[in-house]
Amino acid sequence: MAQSSIEWTELTWNPVTGCTKISPGCKFCYAEVMSRRLKAMGVEKYNDGFKIKTHTNALNIPFTWKKPKVVFVNSMSDLFHPDVPAAFIKAVFAVMNNTPQHIYQVLTKRSERLLELSSELNWTTNIWMGVSVESEEYTYRIDELSQTAAQTKFLSVEPLIAPVNTLNLAGIDWVIVGGESGHKARPIKKDWIDHIKNKCQDNSVAFFFKQWGKAKYNANPNDPTIINEHPQHAKGGCELDGKIYREMPTKAA
Description:
5 helices, Phage Gp37/Gp68 family protein, DUF5131, 12 strands, 8-stranded mixed beta sheet
């Protein structure tokens, strides 16, 4: 468990670590870079670097939290990776089912396996299920998410590296959008963001604009949130037409 700097969550919990690249959004994977650093620091959990590993000893961690938390599950992996045994996925779900005071945010790019296992999982109301969609080519993940029994469904359109024009938001509760960060970050364009924001507003879906990623891609070079000292600073800034969008699904209440 670790406090998170990710704007839409509080903590990260990693019962699985490691992953493999599956689509263009993975190109500059932050988790892969971080795992190398943690291995170099001698952190035992990452002694195999970015190789898929399950950590049974991490399953009890949520039972130790004294107050309700909002938790990003497997920030350093993908729970639905084919190398993660179905029995372990079910064990992670059992922990989430048995700690209803916490909200768990699970995010995958493996929507096919998510859908395959969905009927075998207990979708309690505290489990928010999301898929990553970095471009139009991967909107099929939305369709597969929509077929699951998850009671709160969300999209992480991050890194947004190309337009996403076909966005079926039926049954979707929340959309997060963000630009890529890092020195090799690919550009994000304002009209791509505006299209998604407008679709969310038209469909009464919560819209969360996380970041531009790099200041040079920000449509407003004077965005005050570019400055590190700003209380709502994000990488590259996070204003959109002078407004900060940090909406959460109403089911969070």
